[in-house]
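Lab meeting, action items carried over

1. Structure of the two-component assembly. Owner: GW. Status: complete.
Input record:
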Amino acid sequence: MNKMKLLAEWDYTPSAPRLGYTRETLYVGLGNRDGSYRFEKRPVTDDMIDKFIGGRGFGLKLLWDAVTPETKWNDPENEIVISGGPICGITQYPGAGKCYSVFLSPLTEQTYNSNAGGYFAPLLKFSGFDALELQGMAERDVVVFIDGDNGRVEILESNITDDKNAYTVTERLHEYFAADEKDKKNISVVSSGQAATHSLWGCMNFSFYDQRRKVARLKQAGRGGGGTVLRGKGALALVVKMSRVTGNSTGPADTDTLSRVGGKVHKEIRDFDDVQCKMRTIGTAHLNEIMNDYDLLPVNNYKFGRHDDIGRIHSEEYKKRFAQGMPDGCWYGCSLSCAKATPPFKLATGPWKGREVIVDGPEYETAAGLGSNVGIFDPEWTIEANFYADHYGIDTISLGTGIAFVCECYGLGLITRENTGGLELNFGNKIDIMELIHRIALGADEFSRIVALGTRRMKRLLAERYGADSKIMEDIAMEGQGLEASEYRCQESIAQWGGYFLTLKGPQHDEAWLIFMDMVNKQLPTFEDKAEALFYFPNFRLWFSLVGLCKLPWNDIEPEDNHAKYKGIEAAKVPEHVQNYVDIYNAVTGKNVVKEDLIAMSEKVYNFERIFNLRMGKGTRSNHNCPNRGLGPVFEDEWMARPDYFDGKLKEAGIKPEGLSVKEKIERLQTHRRAQWEQLVDKVYARRGWNRNGIPTLDTVRRLGIDYPDVVELLERNLKPEDEFQ
Amino acid sequence: MITVNGDRFEWKEGLTVQDILDAKNYTFRMISVWINGEAVQNRGDYASTLVPDKGEVEVIHMISGG
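Predicted assembly:
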């Protein structure tokens, strides 16, 4: 292997974490394509810890200080900030290796936060830093190497491979920086892939070394285009190395409590996972048939919620294809171990055709996005698409939803084979859709380059270049704020319209997943109830992103008696697990919070992020768009898939379906639901302490203690008397 | 007649919780079932738990996934 040329270096004295924090962050500046590099150790203040906690909160605070309202995603000033949070790195409780990446997104042109497992954030913390800020643009492709063992940061010329794709880069860098095979586990690499140099769907791949399989595994901070930002900076990869990892490396206040609380959950997982979510054997793909049963599986660009071929993508089909009996946690101590992987899988297409690879996943989102949503019910095809998407550095969710949109446009005749470079992009065309993925990675032709820019830009460019009908595309494109929706069909749950389209960053399911609670359980009958859920759950789930935890051990495993001990919405909160989180937070930090404090911590950051988006020219009501496909049927075949059900919905709205054509029924239902949407928006904004325009009020920021002078000045410029709720 | 999550549901002699789950295609495993305000304690008992006429049944699906 070539030796990489050292371009810049910096020595530092690592601070050991104490009570979850090192109280220092690392700034790495890559210059302005001028070969100048800068390193800096920056202090973490008490105010940062009090208001922003860590993880995503630190990311937002540091990014706020780094950019101006004029900064664009591809300006040198934009940063990628990676941070775990105070709990990140413990090994006693499952799911404690998560980190958040925060940046200005090329897709949404506002803040984005994207989480991933893998070892990077814990090893970064143990190397002495609560966060890494990466700013600037290198003059050439570089590797940033943080050597926590020796207190040194290096910028290296990345000449170890001509193949810029993730698996190659990751494997080479584990090999390059490890002293021997055993040492590879002490390294984590963040990379993207060749697609990220021209696609706005670029994902970030975070590695951990699988000692049993002897391969580097990849976990994705997939969404929002972080990989595009990374490659735009000229960073081929970020690498951290730290060999001293113990259960006490975070410097916790109370190890006994961590062990006791963690042991309780490990026992639940051991005893109940097989009869609950089967995360250890199938991972999140256990949802495939469940979503189908409840009409929630996206089929053919979300037109339908189920399909007769579901048996072919049933979770048992994936179980057969995943290696079993191997601990698959993506950080030490995660007994939920949902990071499934295939045995050696022979690729059938692309540059690695014929090669056998280990494929991480697919998880549910990928199984649905690069499966049912593009009309394909073939796990082998989906596994191959999953591999190449990760390798090329493309977010599988945006890729799936974006191609689903393309397929529908093609089927409707809005675009033709002449436009697509000869590809026949009907739903279910496995050969041509796979070819499109390879072309997107290469930027092979005009059409694939347009697709690679994401759905929002596609709508404009397909109209401009090929004359595609804009109105139809607006109706059917499942994007909000520029981000493609993740893989749940939300149209029959009013609360989930908000869970997707009243979010900070666009329709990603990590803010709130309320479909069962709303549509099936009917626990949210009023708009006030829905607004309350759209206050509580986004804030509760945000808390995981502040402290470095994975959400899955919260509610994909439950105490045996949770379902009978607690009733209604309280049961859905899994109260004993909430108490676990209070206990481990206190045990790490030495603080003494109670469960209500978790929401208070989150609410500060939730509102700060909303205000940050306002600062970037977004963050108002007009940016909370919801397409018609998100609210209900657009075309007659969608209605006719469930005619009695939709007729019933019209009757519930006081509209008699008799005598109406299907087209008229669709128009009436859409009109009714659009009015409901507006009602939902008002109720949610009011509950969140925002005005009618979706802007946090001065009372809200003062109550939360985030009334910094620049925040107040920004709000005073944007809050209008006519937008106040009476 | 009974109600299931507020919707009317035909009652018959010997109706069990499992019959309701099958009829409604409630296949999700992470559920809790309450009959007239009382929880069915054991998820393994659904096939043997009878539902009385005029009963109010709640089949609460936990939030999973997402």
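2. GW to write a short summary for the group page. Key points so far: The interface with chain B takes residues 275-277, 284, 287, 289-291, 293-294, 364, 488, 509-510, 512-514, 516-517, 520-523, 537, 555-556, 558, 561-565, 567-568, 571-572, 574 of chain A (CB under 8 Å). Residues 263-484 of chain A form a domain with the Aldehyde Ferredoxin Oxidoreductase Protein, subunit A; domain 2 fold (CATH 1.10.569.10).
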